[in-house]
Amino acid sequence: MADRYNVESFNLDHTRVAAPYVRVADVKELNGVTITKFDLRFTQPNERFIPTDALHSLEHLLAENSRNHSDEVLDLSPMGCRTGFYLIMHGKKRTEEAARLMIRTLQDVLKADRVPGCSPVHCGNYRDHDLEGAKLWARRFLSVRESDLLKVFREDYTAEERETLPDWPRRSDV
Ligand SMILES: [Zn+2]
């Protein structure tokens, strides 16, 4: 087993994290341009996974709406493990900025009456969508206090605080 991987998140101990959270995964400076990559973790790794249809709809909604709030979003893409998303932004950005952008964008998700770009012309798998499922996970993320979104690891919470975290959504909650 490699001691250090090239991919930053492979070096993260996923058993220690407490989702949801927002975390800087990487900062790169290339030819004088700085970009910041964030780990936007929605579900507890190895415990809960966003179904592919809801994840796909969340991707469309977050990728489209986040750009209404910031001109510096370069990319927003789902993680293959279906526990969250990566957000890449232009500039050296603080975690608070990404958390605030996510909160505003997820509030847009709750108000959405359709998934943007959901057609055979605009999407590579347009039948695989679930707007209500996307709202369920958006609501779960938003039900956590902004200050708690900045807590990444289990030890950042007291045992009592962990007790007060909201339950995970289930498909039957729709
Ligand atoms: Zn699509």
From TrEMBL:
Molecular function (Gene Ontology), one example: iron ion binding
Enzyme Commission code(s) on record: 4.4.1.21
Ranges annotated as spanning the membrane: none
General function of this protein: Involved in the synthesis of autoinducer 2 (AI-2) which is secreted by bacteria and is used to communicate both the cell density and the metabolic potential of the environment. The regulation of gene expression in response to changes in cell density is called quorum sensing. Catalyzes the transformation of S-ribosylhomocysteine (RHC) to homocysteine (HC) and 4,5-dihydroxy-2,3-pentadione (DPD).
Catalytic activity: S-(5-deoxy-D-ribos-5-yl)-L-homocysteine = (S)-4,5-dihydroxypentane-2,3-dione + L-homocysteine
Cofactor binding note: Binds 1 Fe cation per subunit.
The protein's name: S-ribosylhomocysteine lyase
Entry keyword Lyase: yes
Taxonomy, superkingdom: Bacteria
Keywords, ordered alphabetically: Autoinducer synthesis, Iron, Lyase, Metal-binding, Quorum sensing
Subunit record text: Homodimer.
Annotated Pfam families: LuxS
First-level EC class: lyase
Necessary cofactors: Fe cation
Stated family: Belongs to the LuxS family.
Residues reported in the UniProt entry to bind Fe cation: H56, H60, C123
Organism: Melghirimyces profundicolus
Lyase is among the record's keywords: yes
Gene it is expressed from: luxS
One example of a Gene Ontology biological process annotation: quorum sensing
